[in-house]
């Protein structure tokens, strides 16, 4: 809150002289109530501690007496006392003590200096410090795009486990994603030679199935110049994988049958009954998931070039390097404008749902969307409509009143 407290009282001017009439530090609050309200050090510290807890309602109960003390002890007018008290009330949202402010200010200065003068080193350090945090890595990747720093996909030909700085053939710097960032992979050793075939590479390194799959899907094996579909089909022995998944489904069907018998003999009003229902639902969802995997595998076996590259990258990296919109007709599609009141139609991908209940107990959701122009926004969606939508799928969104997501449909594909 930008309220200048200059020229109200000489003591106040003295207390706030170093911050140009603005109330910035907790110590200033303590000094103000001691000097202008006549509070003891102990009583003034009660207000400081209340501000530190950031509970506005608690601070609000102390304000009437404080205003009265300002007027009685220092002869301030109602308007003057109210102005100072309003500034102190605003501190309940956020205010540092002076020591913390100095430390944060120093860190902010140091990091700003490093970012401005050593951008590649700085961003690489941020990536490596937050390798397990997809949201932060995605945020830093977007920041790199804004800064003109290219982020390269992981590659076994480089073999780096951590993010590292590289120089492209053009001579310009770039940051290479580390292999350990790939979901399902911890630190791995890599033995790579440029004349190797991909199956020879796997045999030499002795990776298990999980690591092989993650390396292929993330694009880390693209240096072998084979399609990812072909590598998955060969390296993972897909015919055997289908048999394994079908056997898993048989086991799940037996479990469902047993749980159905348990359910029928249980009292509907007990916790046990509800637990059995949840287990049955989980087994059914597992079967649906396995059937989808079987369909995906059969599709790849039939046509290895049909493999969905973007889906695999999102599964292993959390994002994709592929232009997901190149197959869609963008004629007449808007660029997203955050403050536009009228309806706008924008291509985008849902990254995250946050489902809650509104005040009437109805379903609603906050939906994090990334648009075709790389902007992102959190939109609001009501009713059960959002239950039909999936994350990481391209939709044509209809947005109105800035942030209200009215509908989402399947966009038209380009004519080939």
Topology at a glance:
Blueprint (H helix, E strand, L loop, with lengths): L9 H6 L10 H12 L3 H13 L2 H5 L2 H12 L3 H13 L7 H20 L1 H11 L4 H14 L2 E3 L11 E4 L5 E4 L21 H8 L3 H10 L9 H8 L2 H27 L6 H32 L6 H9 L26 E14 L5 E9 L4 E7 L11 E7 L3 E6 L7
Parallel strand pairs: 1-3
Antiparallel strand pairs: 2-3, 4-5, 4-7, 5-6, 7-8
Helix pairs in contact: 2-3, 5-6, 7-8, 8-9, 11-12, 11-15, 13-14
Determine the number of helices (DSSP H or I, runs of at least 4 residues).
Answer: 15
Radius of gyration, whole Å: 30 Å
As a percent range, the share of strand residues is: 5-15%
Instruction: Kindly report the spatial arrangement of strands forming the biggest sheet.
Output: 6-5-4-7-8
Helix share, percent: 40-55%
Structural class: alpha+beta
The termini sit apart by: 57 Å
Task: Kindly state the number of beta strands.
Answer: 8
Approximate shape = extended
Strand and helix order:
HHHHHHHHHEEEHHHHHHEEEEE
Kindly report the average pLDDT value: 86
Protein architecture, described:
Helix content is 48%, strand content 13%. With 416 residues, it is α+β, with helices and mostly antiparallel strands. The two termini are 57 Å apart.
Question: Keyphrases for this structure?
Answer:
416 residues, alpha+beta, 8 strands, 48% helix, single chain, five-stranded antiparallel sheet
Short description, anyone?
The protein is of the alpha+beta class and 416 residues long. The chain contains 15 helices and 8 strands.
């Amino acid at each position: 809150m930008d309220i200048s407290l200059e020229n109200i009282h000489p003591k106040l001017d003295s207390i706030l002289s170093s911050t140009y009439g603005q109330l910035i530090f907790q110590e200033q609050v303590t000094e103000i109530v001691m000097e202008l309200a006549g509070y003891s050090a102990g009583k003034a510290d009660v207000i400081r501690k209340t501000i530190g807890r950031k509970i506005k309602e608690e601070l609000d109960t102390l304000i009437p007496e404080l205003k009265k003390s300002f007027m009685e002890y220092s002869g301030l007018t109602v308007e003057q006392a109210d102005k100072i008290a309003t500034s102190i009330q605003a501190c309940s949202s956020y205010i540092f003590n002076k020591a913390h402010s100095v430390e944060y200010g120093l860190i902010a200065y140091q990091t700003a200096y490093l970012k401005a003068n050593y951008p590649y080193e700085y961003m690489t350090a941020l990536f490596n410090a937050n390798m397990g945090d997809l949201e932060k890595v995605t945020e830093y990747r977007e920041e790199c795009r804004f800064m003109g720093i290219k982020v390269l996909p992981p590659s076994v030909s480089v073999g780096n486990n951590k993010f590292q700085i590289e120089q492209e053939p053009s001579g310009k710097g770039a940051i290479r994603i580390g292999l350990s960032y790939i979901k399902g992979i911890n630190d791995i050793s890599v033995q790579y030679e440029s004349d190797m075939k991909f199956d020879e590479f796997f045999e030499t390194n002795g990776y298990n199935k999980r690591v092989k799959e993650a390396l292929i899907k993330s694009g880390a094996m693209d240096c072998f110049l084979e399609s990812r579909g072909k590598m998955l089909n060969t390296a993972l022995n897909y015919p055997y994988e289908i048999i394994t998944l079908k056997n898993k489904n048989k086991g799940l069907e037996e479990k469902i049958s047993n749980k159905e018998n348990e359910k029928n003999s249980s009292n509907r009003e007990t916790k046990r009954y509800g637990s059995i229902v949840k287990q049955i639902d989980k087994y059914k969802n597992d079967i649906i998931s396995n059937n989808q995997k079987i369909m995906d595998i059969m599709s790849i076996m039939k046509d290895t070039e049909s493999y969905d590259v973007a889906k695999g990258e999102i599964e292993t990296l959390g994002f994709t390097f592929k232009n997901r919109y190149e197959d869609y007709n963008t004629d007449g599609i808007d660029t997203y404008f955050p403050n536009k009141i009228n309806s706008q139609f924008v291509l985008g991908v849902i990254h995250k749902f946050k489902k809650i209940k509104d005040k009437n107990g109805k379903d609603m959701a906050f939906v994090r969307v990334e648009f075709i122009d790389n902007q992102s926004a959190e939109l609001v969606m009501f009713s059960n409509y959002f239950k039909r939508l999936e994350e990481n799928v391209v939709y044509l969104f209809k947005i109105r009143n800035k942030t209200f997501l009215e509908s989402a449909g399947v966009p038209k594909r380009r004519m080939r």
